Amino acid sequence: MKLRVLAVGTRMPGWVAEGVEEYRKRMPRECSLLIEEIPPGPRGKNADVARAITQEGDRMLARLDADLQIVALDVQGRPWSTPELATRLDGWKLDGRDVALLIGGPDGLDPRCLARADARWSLSRLTLPHPLVRVVLAEQLYRAWTLSIGHPYHR
């Protein structure tokens, strides 16, 4: 199974790449973690934010195969504890499909991406910077995997 993180935003700071890579390389081959960056829509002084979100949605949806299990990271989603995430990870592995985890841009995910999602997950009720979300997500996926195999990292 592949865990594909589709995240709006490019040119992340070095600490983001280093943090994500640390957890990505710890994941086993049978549960690999891939990060795919989606170019953001244009934003600026007089930018049309709705159009930017739509463009981001177009780019994201173009990368989603029909047979993927899709999880949208959304502030309005349901919070999952680490044990709940580990249970979901086990279920995803049994399902046999790859999983796409969607991270929107500064204004959130396109409504079409939310509608396409099989689940909506809220990492926190706090507003987190998008670069930090990538690192937290990678760490939590690794932690859930260690919990599911009985590895002591979770303690």
Automatic annotation (TrEMBL):
It comes from Halotalea alkalilenta. This is Ribosomal RNA large subunit methyltransferase H. The keyword Mitochondrion does not apply. S-adenosyl-L-methionine binds at residues 73, 104, 123-128. It is found in: Cytoplasm. Keywords: Cytoplasm, Methyltransferase, rRNA processing, S-adenosyl-L-methionine, Transferase. Its EC number is 2.1.1.177. The gene is rlmH. Specifically methylates the pseudouridine at position 1915 (m3Psi1915) in 23S rRNA. Its main location: cytoplasm. It comes from the Bacteria. The keyword RNA-binding does not apply. GO terms for cellular component: cytoplasm. One of its GO terms (molecular function) is rRNA (pseudouridine-N3-)-methyltransferase activity.
